Amino acid sequence: MARGDGRLTHDLYPGEKAPQDECGVFGVWAPGEEVAKLTYFGLYALQHRGQESAGIATSDGHSILVYKDMGLVSQVFDESSLTSLRGHLAIGHTRYSTTGGSTWENAQPTLGGSDRGTVALAHNGNLINSAELRDLVDQQLDGRAARGELARGNTSDTALVTALLSENPDKPLEETALEVLPKLRGAFCFVFMDEHTLYAARDPYGVRPLALGRLERGWVVASETAALQTIGASVVREVEPGELIAIDEYGLRSHKFAEPTPKGCVFEYVYLARPDAVIRGRVVHEARVEMGRALAREHPVDADLVIGVPESGVPAATGYAQESGIPFGQGFVKNAYVGRTFIQPSQTLRQLGIRLKLNALEHAVKGKRLVVVDDSVVRGNTQRAQIRMLREAGAAEVHVRISSPPVKWPCFYGIDFATRAELIANGLGVEEICASIGADTLGYISEDGMIAATAQPKSQLCSACFSGDYPIALPEDGRIGKHVLETLPIELRTGHDTSVDLAERDRRQDAEGVSIGVSGGAENSLLHP
C-alpha cells in the first residue's frame, strides 16, 4: 500500500497541538459474520481516538492478513479491501502516535511470527519501559538480526511486544503472553490474535478503558462501549485491570496476570472518550455536565449567555448553564468536515489566523457577556484565537471557564501533551494566563471538583497531568518519551550498527517535522521548569 507523504496539521489554529487522543483498539471473534466490516464500523466509532493511521488484521484459521495505511478509517479502507479480508476473527486499530513517530512503518496492527504461527497485535496506551524491553528483545535475539516489524523500521513499543510474543517457538501464545505481560510497565490495552484465537489484555492499573461485548454468534472487545453498541453488541463488562482474556471455539477464558491497582485516566472523562462511552459505570456525558455544574459553583459570573467550544466543551457548558441559570446557546459554528488535514497552510494564512474549524456566530454573541466553556488549556493559542473571534463578532465580555485544572505535567501513559516548557500553566499564574489569552476572567475547575464529577474514588484515578503524581514510577535512567526508540542505536532493528552521535540525533525529524533528538519532545520534560 502507498505510504502517506503529507504531514498532519491541526484544525482550529494551524501549528497548535492540543492534547492528542491516544489510540483505539477493536477485536472480534464471530464465525459466520463479516468480521472485517464489523471491525471497520467499530474503528469508525473509535476514530476520535486516533487519526494518523488505521489497520485491520483477519484470520480464516489458516493465515493472517493485515491491511493498514496512513489516514482516517474511511480513507484507508474501501469495499474491495474489506472484502479481501476474510475470516472468523479480526482486530483493528486507529492510531495517534505516543511511542514512535507518525510513519507508515509504525501503523498497526503489527505482525510477527514463529514456527508455531503468526501474531498480530494492536495497542492503546504507552509503555514506559520501552528501552528496557528493547534490551530484552536484543538479548532474546542473541546476535541474530531482527525480523518482521523491527527489521522494517518500526520504532513503536507495540513492535517490541509483538517480538516478545512471537520469538518463543516452544510455547503456545497464551502461555507466552502470561510470561510477557507482567514485564510491561505503563498503560496498555492490547487486542491480539493468532490464526485461531482472539486475545485482550489490560494493564494492572487500568489506565485506558477496554470493554467486552457479546454478539449473537461471537464476542467483541473495544476501547469504548460506544464501539460495541455501534455494531449491535451488548456490553458485558470491562476487561479488568491485570486480566488476559482468550476467545476461541472453546469459549472465553480469563487469566489474572497481575494484581489490579486501578488508576483510570481522569482525562478520559474530561476530553478523550466519546460522550456516550461508559467507563466504570459512569456515562462520560454525565461526568462532563457535572464538571460544568461544579465550574458554575466554583467560578460564578454575571453573564448573558453560556457557550461551549465544540465538541468536548459543550456538555460542560450545558452543566454550567443549568447550575447558574444563565441561558445556554450556540456561539460557534463548526465545520463538520474538518478533522485533520494533510495540507499545510501557507505562512500568510497562518498569520491571518486561518479558521478551518470554528467561526463565531455573530448574531448570537454580539453585545453579549459570554461564558465560554472549554475542556483544557495547553499552550493557550487555541483559546486566544477563539476569544479574538468572539470579540471581532462583537462580544461585550468573554469569561473563560475550563472543565479541567491547569495542565502542568506531560503524560507518559498514552496522551501526547506538549512538553512542560510549552505548557502555559507552568510559566504563568491564572491571572497572567487570563491576560495572555485576552479573556475578561478565567476560572479552572478544582481537581476535587473534577474528580467528584467522575463518581470514582480519587485513589483509583490517575491525574498526573494536573498533579505531577505519577502512579506508575517512571524510569530513573530517563529513557522515556515518544521518540526514545528512535534516539537509541538501531542495530536491533537493522541487524547492523547504524547508531549516530547525539548532535546528529538532535537534527533528525519524524514525518511530522518534529525533532526526535534526545533533547526534544517529552524525553527530558521533567527537567524543564
TrEMBL record:
<keyword id="KW-0411">Iron-sulfur</keyword>
<keyword id="KW-0408">Iron</keyword>
<feature type="domain" description="Glutamine amidotransferase type-2">
    <location>
        <begin position="23"/>
        <end position="250"/>
    </location>
</feature>
<dbReference type="InterPro" id="IPR017932">
    <property type="entry name" value="GATase_2_dom"/>
</dbReference>
<dbReference type="GO" id="GO:0000287">
    <property type="term" value="F:magnesium ion binding"/>
</dbReference>
<dbReference type="InterPro" id="IPR035584">
    <property type="entry name" value="PurF_N"/>
</dbReference>
<keyword id="KW-0315">Glutamine amidotransferase</keyword>
<dbReference type="InterPro" id="IPR005854">
    <property type="entry name" value="PurF"/>
</dbReference>
<dbReference type="GO" id="GO:0009113">
    <property type="term" value="P:purine nucleobase biosynthetic process"/>
</dbReference>
<keyword id="KW-0658">Purine biosynthesis</keyword>
<dbReference type="Pfam" id="PF13522">
    <property type="entry name" value="GATase_6"/>
</dbReference>
<dbReference type="GO" id="GO:0006189">
    <property type="term" value="P:'de novo' IMP biosynthetic process"/>
</dbReference>
<feature type="binding site">
    <location>
        <position position="312"/>
    </location>
    <ligand>
        <name>Mg(2+)</name>
    </ligand>
</feature>
<keyword id="KW-0479">Metal-binding</keyword>
<keyword id="KW-0460">Magnesium</keyword>
<feature type="binding site">
    <location>
        <position position="411"/>
    </location>
    <ligand>
        <name>[4Fe-4S] cluster</name>
    </ligand>
</feature>
<feature type="binding site">
    <location>
        <position position="265"/>
    </location>
    <ligand>
        <name>[4Fe-4S] cluster</name>
    </ligand>
</feature>
<dbReference type="GO" id="GO:0004044">
    <property type="term" value="F:amidophosphoribosyltransferase activity"/>
</dbReference>
<feature type="binding site">
    <location>
        <position position="375"/>
    </location>
    <ligand>
        <name>Mg(2+)</name>
    </ligand>
</feature>
<comment type="function">
    <text>Catalyzes the formation of phosphoribosylamine from phosphoribosylpyrophosphate (PRPP) and glutamine.</text>
</comment>
<comment type="similarity">
    <text>In the C-terminal section; belongs to the purine/pyrimidine phosphoribosyltransferase family.</text>
</comment>
<feature type="binding site">
    <location>
        <position position="465"/>
    </location>
    <ligand>
        <name>[4Fe-4S] cluster</name>
    </ligand>
</feature>
<dbReference type="InterPro" id="IPR029057">
    <property type="entry name" value="PRTase-like"/>
</dbReference>
<dbReference type="GO" id="GO:0051539">
    <property type="term" value="F:4 iron, 4 sulfur cluster binding"/>
</dbReference>
<feature type="binding site">
    <location>
        <position position="462"/>
    </location>
    <ligand>
        <name>[4Fe-4S] cluster</name>
    </ligand>
</feature>
<keyword id="KW-0808">Transferase</keyword>
<dbReference type="InterPro" id="IPR029055">
    <property type="entry name" value="Ntn_hydrolases_N"/>
</dbReference>
<protein>
    <recommendedName>
        <fullName>Amidophosphoribosyltransferase</fullName>
        <ecNumber>2.4.2.14</ecNumber>
    </recommendedName>
</protein>
<keyword id="KW-0328">Glycosyltransferase</keyword>
<comment type="pathway">
    <text>Purine metabolism; IMP biosynthesis via de novo pathway; N(1)-(5-phospho-D-ribosyl)glycinamide from 5-phospho-alpha-D-ribose 1-diphosphate: step 1/2.</text>
</comment>
<keyword id="KW-0004">4Fe-4S</keyword>
<feature type="binding site">
    <location>
        <position position="374"/>
    </location>
    <ligand>
        <name>Mg(2+)</name>
    </ligand>
</feature>
<dbReference type="Pfam" id="PF00156">
    <property type="entry name" value="Pribosyltran"/>
</dbReference>
<feature type="active site" description="Nucleophile">
    <location>
        <position position="23"/>
    </location>
</feature>
<dbReference type="InterPro" id="IPR000836">
    <property type="entry name" value="PRTase_dom"/>
</dbReference>
